[in-house]
Amino acid sequence: MVKMTEPPRPPGDGTAGGYPPGAATPPTVSDDDRTWAMIAHFGGAIAMLVTGGTLGWVPPLIAYLVKGHQSPTVRAHSVNALNFQLFWSTISIAGYVLGICGSFFIVGLIFFLLPLAATLIGFICGIIAGIKAAEGELYRYPAAPEILR
């Protein structure tokens, strides 16, 4: 059983959203920032699917260049998406190059499956991140190195 030293405050008692004075309140995200964050994530996912896993990094880069310097929220989302999509686009391109250069059928087939996997990973994770961005949350992509900060 947990004992409380002070009862919780109702939302209408003059404190910010029921938080005690001096406590950090959750940051509010404007609709414009949320839209640009969703563009970075959903755009990257769609670009990965449409371009076969090669240009998923373009929409997050556009979001970063347009609004990243004005909004810390958009910057965080676009850099996060850009790091992820750059990584998986590089893997996809490497798979295409190695598949074309593969001298044996099996080696070529294996390296043509790599871009397919990278495309699906970029698409699925981008959709999940876009949904989280719509909810106002920052999604941390799995297997995404921090290329840009």
Automatic annotation (TrEMBL):
This is DUF4870 domain-containing protein. Keywords: Membrane, Transmembrane, Transmembrane helix. It is found in: Membrane. Residues 1-29 are annotated as: Disordered. Pfam families: MamF_MmsF. The chain crosses the membrane at residues 39-66, 86-106, 112-131. It is a multi-pass membrane protein. InterPro entries: MamF_MmsF (IPR019109). Coiled coil: none annotated. Its main location: membrane.
